[in-house]
Design brief:
Length: 289
């Protein structure tokens, strides 16, 4: 089995705008190349919002050099960008946005969700782009829940949704710039599952809800990540101590310098300075009124 190289938990919540109460579960700031090509994961754990007619979320902001992947577990997010794109990510849906050369967008609770209120739960994952693709044209993949293959474990033990990559001969709908797997799973209390991962990928398990035991002995609480050594082994074991909800993320390391600042992640300081200069001179465009 793959060796566990670290377990990290974050119970501290911060607000992104006024709509996203998130816990940052990993970031390239702290873990660098060990999590490449993944950069960051924010988890908005279930949070109750009262009904409102106000817009809650985060207004116009830019991105360049990577992709943002939004997974909606409960509630809805409406987005709009400077390239004329927009839409609503509903419960079970995934939005895979390639910021590439740069765009400006806004992310708000959908008007329908804001009006009714209720529990809101999301993940936003940032996936790095290879240097050769950082300036690719921005694009969206709006992935609806129905288009995501679900693999059921035996005995009703749980399931895996294949968002990107391949699991048990099912291919996820997301197209990616480097080889990655994004598997969204659930496991019922008392059940265990061996999972095969590519031998040359970095591998992370994100425990969103519940308590798990990994590789037979490592206890992991909710709002934690488990980082595995890239040691040529191809198997990990997941066991749910209580009903658990998790993500398995694997990716082939890019092995390129990571230089980030706020909403920009590039390979060098000069490219970051260029990103600020391009954004400030309006090259990312504007969201149409
Ligand atoms: Mn954003």
């Amino acid at each position: 089995m793959k060796k566990i190289s670290g377990v990290y938990r974050n119970q501290q919540m911060h607000w992104v705008g006024d709509g996203f109460p998130v816990k940052n579960l990993f970031s390239y700031d702290r873990l660098g190349q060990a999590i490449s090509p993944f950069l960051l994961l924010d988890y908005a754990a279930p949070y109750h919002f009262d009904p409102t007619t106000a817009q809650r979320g985060v207004g116009s902001h830019p991105h360049r050099g990577f992709e943002t992947v939004t997974i909606a577990y409960q509630g809805e997010v409406t987005h709009k960008d400077s390239h004329g794109g927009g839409g609503t990510i509903k419960t079970g849906d995934v939005q895979w946005m390639t910021a590439g050369a740069g765009l400006v967008h806004e992310e708000f609770h959908s008007p329908t969700f804001a009006e009714t209120g209720g529990l809101f739960e999301m993940v936003q994952l940032w996936v790095n782009l290879p240097a050769a693709d950082k300036m690719t044209a921005p694009k969206y993949q709006a992935i609806e829940a129905e288009g995501i293959p679900v693999i059921q474990f035996d005995d009703g033990a749980g399931h895996i949704r294949v968002i990107a990559g391949q699991f048990a001969e099912q291919t996820g709908p997301a197209s990616t710039f480097s080889p990655v797997n994004v598997w969204d799973g659930a496991l019922k209390a008392g059940h265990a599952q061996y999972i095969h991962v590519p031998v040359d990928h970095n591998t992370l398990v994100v425990v969103l809800e519940g308590e798990m035991s990994l590789n037979g002995s490592q206890k992991v609480a909710d709002h934690s990540i488990v980082l595995f050594a890239n040691d040529g082994e191809a198997e990990i074991q997941l066991e749910a101590t209580t009903d658990a909800k998790f993500l398995v993320l694997t990716g082939k390391p890019l092995n390129e310098p990571i230089q980030g600042h706020g909403p920009f992640v590039m390979n060098s300081k000069n490219e970051i300075i260029q990103a600020f200069s391009d954004f400030n001179s309006g090259k990312f465009g504007e969201i149409a009124g």
